[in-house]
Amino acid sequence: PCKLIKVNRDPKLGDFTTLNKAIDSIPLFNPCRAVISVAPGIYREKIEIPATMAYVTIQGSGANKTIVRWDDTADKLGPNGQPLGTYGSATFAVNAPYFIAKDITFKNKAPPPPAGAIGKQAVALRISADMAAFLNCKFIGAQDTLYDHKGRHYFNNCHIQGSVDFIFGDGLSLYDGCRLHAKTNTYGALTAQKRESMLEETGFSFVNCQVTGSGALYLGRAWGSFSRVVFAYTYMQKIITPRGWYDWGDKQRQMTVFYGQFKCSGPGADYGGRVSWARELTEEEAQPFISLSFIDGHDWL
Fold this sequence. Notes:
Keywords: Aspartyl esterase, Cell wall, Hydrolase, Secreted, Signal. Its main location: secreted. It is built from four helices and 27 strands. It has helices spanning about 20-25, 85-90, 285, 295-300, and strands at about 5, 35-40, 40-45, 45-50, 55-60, 65-70, 90-95, 100, 105-110, 125, 130-135, 140, 145-150, 150-155, 160, 165-170, 170-175, 180, 185-195, 205, 210-215, 215-220, 230, 235, 245, 260, 280. The protein starts with a strand and ends with a helix. The mean pLDDT is about 95.
């Protein structure tokens, strides 16, 4: 790295006491890798990495030790007097390419909304840029935890917890060896993927993951008409509703979504009750989804 910045709540032990001050010290048009090393502690801040500030690494001291948390919801009014919206509710937002986070928790601690509540989306992290990697991270929230908005992303050994649509957006992302943990007492969905045309190279692939928790969960619901989600080699607890997938109340989408399972296991993976428009993939069909080439990872990871 060409820049190493230490964040510690004790001013004697670090360069800065907050992540925001550390980020402010990086050039706006950042040319090379800047590593922010964050000591253990709870950092109560809302953070945004601007679009031109590429090559930022946030290195925590372990996901259970270094926690960034805030509590905005979509219906909260922002500085301009308008509601923040889901996009603006994120505790941590990334708008620049080549971002890396390791060993840290991103949390939105807004309480889980009652069923049917409007405007309670509470994003823990939003990633709106290309070529980002998250290793050994935790994302904790209730409704709309991880906004996988756009770009190619790699998540390895991460823990993602939420209730409704807790991984959502139009990213092209590989979730490798991650734990997806549901905390809901009603119906929820693991994913809401927003691919909107045949031409869009986006989708979510979950490989060697575990799905655990409470409630009744769809694997996904079709936010976009061409929504694309695949689960491979994934263990599912009995919390997955037998139908597995939901068309967002629009039967037309059944014709155009791509929802598949490949060699999944556990009581929630049973293919018996699945909707007719989901697929049990063959080896050949699964192949493009289950390696780094799904996100062109060999080029940039």
